[in-house]
Specification:
The protein is α+β, with helices and mostly antiparallel strands and 193 residues long. It is 35% helix and 21% strand.
Length: 193
Amino acid sequence: MNRRWAVVFVALVLLVAAGFLAWRSLAGRTGENGAAGVGEESEANTATADPALGQLYFPGAGGRLYAEPRDLPPLVDLPARISRVVEELLAGPSESGRFRLLPEGVALAGVHVSVDGIAYVDLASADLPAPPASGSTEERLAVYGLVNSILVNAPELRGVVLLWNGQQRATFSGHLDTTRPLTTDRTLIASRP
């Protein structure tokens, strides 16, 4: 009889443990209030979600980056979200007094996100074998307009590596070290519009 109760007790403990693990897994996906957790949405929510307001950074007066709000659809897929941000940046600013980061004709060739949270963003131009020549200020504004915009809209990333025509370069235009993943540079962001 004692052996029978021991088997029942072990079965109950295993059942309770399995229930707890299932509950934790479900709670991690839906949050405590039943809403989709960070980085996850149901197919129904993705299809009908309203556009989200994102921030893009474009050069402007005084050698600073200025935030421009943009409607960006809430994309769960991280490479797709990064691609959308970069494509919006390459399309240029919509507000007056802001300037393009890169010349027309530069396109996004691809985005790869490594398992350690680094986004590799490949910019390409058939007309430009290397990034356009510029001064150090223009180079910093172009690079950090991209990097800041990507990281503010994809905060789960740890850094960004910029590629040009499939190659990582020692510098983007001769001044800024781009041999390592870059992180946000808030010193370039203007404090007011």
